[in-house]
Amino acid sequence: MVKNLIVAGFALVSMGCGSATNNDQGVSFTFLGFFEDNAGANTASSLTTTLGSITDTETSDGTDTSLLTYFGTANNLSGQFIRTQRAYISYRIPGSAVQPPDTSVAYSAFLAPADAGNSSLPPGAGGASATNFSKLPVITSAVKTWLNLQRNSLPEAPFDIEATASVVGATSAGDVYESNIASITISVLPDVVIPPTEGTVSDVVDPEAL
């Protein structure tokens, strides 16, 4: 009986373990959160956008530049570097009957060891930093398209979208770490409607002048 309980206990432990190495609270690999600059000097706690169509504030691939911010990560390991791989983002709209789908974006950065002693740094990487701040979209163009398609099911603007993200990276020893999570709020504002203007007297052409 005791043997069976021990076996069952090991089975439960195995089922509870994911593919990533344990990194409780981001002790070894930390997601520092969202920032306004690539130096990590100013934290970004919120962003704003509208559900309107592509405007001149968007890049050629349709990503709204108002939804780009810097994702900060830090390697706290000694002697091992980390290569970040992807940032995984989930969303929640309070009071909405539908919720945006989860998504991920490529996040490629090299994080040097926090302590270079007995380091596994590759040649030429001695000047690398243990922290990184890369500019990435908090809401991708695909998710923004979904939001527009679901416009009638969403709360009337203004409303908030709560985005929660984590980052996955691999160490030089081959271990995969998933960071802690961090959140940011996106305020969706009403679309700006520009009313049509009426023509003026100067716009009317005098037939006798032709």
Taken from the alpha-carbon principal axes, the silhouette is: elongated
Helix content: 10-25%
- Radius of gyration, Cα only, in angstroms? 24 Å
Tally the structural domains: 1
What's the CATH class, please?
Mainly Beta
Low-confidence stretches: 1-18, 53-58
- Taken as a percent bin, the fraction of beta residues is 25-35%
Question: How many runs of DSSP E, i.e. beta strands?
Answer: 9
Number of helical stretches of at least 4 residues: 2
| SSE series | HEEEEEEHEEE
Largest sheet: 6 strands, mixed
What would the average pLDDT be, to the nearest integer? 81
Q: Span between N and C termini?
A: 106 Å
* Helix/strand structural class: mainly beta
CATH architecture: Distorted Sandwich
CATH topology: Coagulation Factor XIII, Chain A, domain 1
Secondary-structure blueprint of this entry?
Elements: H1 2-16, E1 29-35, E2 46-49, E3 68-75, E4 82-92, E5 103-111, E6 131-137, H2 141-149, E7 159-171, E8 176-178, E9 182-188
Parallel strand pairs: 2-9
Antiparallel strand pairs: 1-3, 3-6, 4-5, 4-7, 7-8, 7-9
